[in-house]
Amino acid sequence: MKDLAGREATPVERRLLRLYDGVADLLREEGLAPCVAANLKEAAAALCVAILDLGLRHERPDDLGL
Amino acid sequence: MSDSPYWNPKTETMPREELSALQAKKLRAVVARAYEKSAFHRRLLDGGKVRPERIRSLADLERIPFTTREAWMECQGAVPLYGDMLAQPEHDAVRYHMTSGTTGRRPLRVLDSRLDWKWIAECWCYGFHGFGVRPTDRVFFAFSYATFIGFWGAHYACEKMGAMVLPSGNMATPNRVRVIEEMGATVVCATPTYALRMAQEARELGIDLPRGLVSKVIVSGEPAGSIPATKRLIESQWGAKVGDTAGMTELGTIMMFECSHQPGGAHIIEDHFVEEVIDPATGKAVGYGERGERVVTSFGRGMIPVLRYRTRDLVVKVPGARCSCGRTFDLYEGGILGRVDDMLLVRGTNVYPRAVEAIVREYPAVDEFQIRLWTDEGIRDEIGVRCEVRAGHEEHWDRAAVDLQKDLVRNHEGLHFHVERVPTGSLPRFELKAKRVKDDRVVKGGA
Ligand SMILES: [Zn+2]
């Protein structure tokens, strides 16, 4: 997998993406307790910024309400 | 965690070709999203016959029509409160801010989401980390925390970095100075003008700032942060290094920062923004080293996309290699050089308030000053500088006034300047954006 600058993603970058995808998936679950949903949103937004910084993806997760 | 001098080592040192590739991909995504989600931007792009899928490289950027403050104001006037420019539902927003606004102008209203705020803080992290702020610092904010966006993002940046934040809210100046001393602040954030105001207050309170713990003063909000003489004055009065940053409400954050190598300019955060410099009269791009107007495109703000926004800020872009820090991000030499609209035409001579400030600040006898313009004999423009004399410098004033007058004349093609002393405390002081020009002319630009 390549980043937006055309570099091969590093192992750490791949792990970061997997982590973010996991949090985003969990956030799409129905019926999360308010405390879980709010903190997952915080986590997803923070991870998303790291992904934008590293130029790994450019899509904004508009469906997550972040 | 590494002790890198860069907040984001990957992009801050990225070769220019890779950086351009990164920017082109981000640009394409941002344009496509703005077109799909924001009616304002769809109109803008349709008006310029720009199809988002045709944006492939940075060269395509100039096909996108400019956005202006006027268009933004009109849009929000037609559809209160936010116009039809939001790219996300209003309920995604977690905060509201507005521009400070000047007489007769509608303030701009902005909304930001949770992700926007994380990103706003992130851009400040580039600047604070780059200037040497670390988790062990105690950072004092001389900032009122109201609807003006100011240092809000910097506050969150410091929390994110793990530094200790010392907020001051609506504290009066003497209290702020006492807290800085009592809490052992190591970094102080303020406008350049207010940094000088606090230093003056400290002297009156008998607090010796240069012997204190503050090692960095980070300034924002006024072009003065990169005027060498103003900077030296703040540095000598605080016994600290001064780092300049600049941002705007329309972006929510900073787009440039001065690194710890202090090359006489500020790096553009080019992995989150594309900055173009144009001739304000023709709209055509100007090259490295030429003065022009900044035009900004943001990759980060989600609720309000920003495409080719004409900032009215005057800048000179130079290659990042001009700085020895290793960043590849281009620099704005001398920071923000003033505003396109700031130029005063006085008897046919162009006068930039920032240039006047650069001269006045060379005189330590001057504590505060104001540029005043008036009409004489019903037609003739006159310009003068009113000065408050710094305590302890009274005996140097007469000599300084003569030299200052000569310096001003020499630097303005022989235009006569009046130099006048006014009582201490009679000129306004500013916490936010200083307004040091008082234009009382009946006819502007008169012979
Ligand atoms: Zn540098």
Helices and strands in order:
The complex is a heterodimer of chains A (66) and B (447).
Chain A: H1 11-27, H2 34-53
Helix pairs in contact in A: 1-2
Chain B: H1 9-12, H2 16-37, H3 39-47, H4 69-78, E1 93-98, E2 109-113, H5 114-130, E3 138-141, H6 152-161, E4 164-167, H7 173-182, E5 187-190, H8 192-205, E6 216-219, H9 228-238, E7 241-248, E8 253-257, E9 265-268, E10 273-278, E11 291-298, E12 309-318, E13 331-333, E14 338-339, E15 344-346, E16 349-351, H10 353-360, E17 366-376, E18 380-389, H11 397-410, E19 417-421, E20 437-439
The complex binds zinc ion (ZN).
Zinc ion binds next to loops of chain B.
Write a brief structural summary.
In chain A, 56% of the residues lie in helices and 0% in strands.
3D architecture notes:
The complex is a heterodimer of chains A (66) and B (447). Chain A has 66 residues and is mainly alpha-helical. Chain A has one domain (11-58). Chain A has two helices and no strands. In chain A, helix 1 (11-27) packs antiparallel against helix 2 (34-53). Chain A is elongated, with a radius of gyration of 13 Å. The relative contact order of chain A is 0.20. The model of chain A has no long low-confidence stretch (mean pLDDT 96). In chain B, the strands form four sheets. In chain B, strands 3, 4, 5, 6, 7, 8, 9, 10, 11, 12, 13 and 14 form a twelve-stranded mixed beta sheet that branches. Chain B has a four-stranded mixed beta sheet with strand order 19-18-17-20. A two-stranded antiparallel sheet of chain B has the order 1-2. In chain B, helix 7 packs across helix 8. The radius of gyration of chain B is 22 Å and the shape is globular. Chain B is built from eleven helices and 20 strands. Chain B has helices at 9-12, 16-37, 39-47, 69-78, 114-130, 152-161, 173-182, 192-205, 228-238, 353-360, 397-410, and strands at residues 93-98, 109-113, 138-141, 164-167, 187-190, 216-219, 241-248, 253-257, 265-268, 273-278, 291-298, 309-318, 331-333, 338-339, 344-346, 349-351, 366-376, 380-389, 417-421, 437-439. With 447 residues, chain B is α/β, with parallel strands linked by helices. Chain B folds into two domains: 1-341, ANL, N-terminal domain (Rossmann fold), CATH 3.40.50.12780; 344-440, ANL, C-terminal domain (GMP Synthetase, Chain A, domain 3, 2-Layer Sandwich), CATH 3.30.300. Chain B starts with 8 loop residues before the first helix and ends in an 8-residue tail after the last strand. At the A-B interface, helix 2 of A face helix 2 and helix 5 of B. The structure holds zinc ion (ZN).
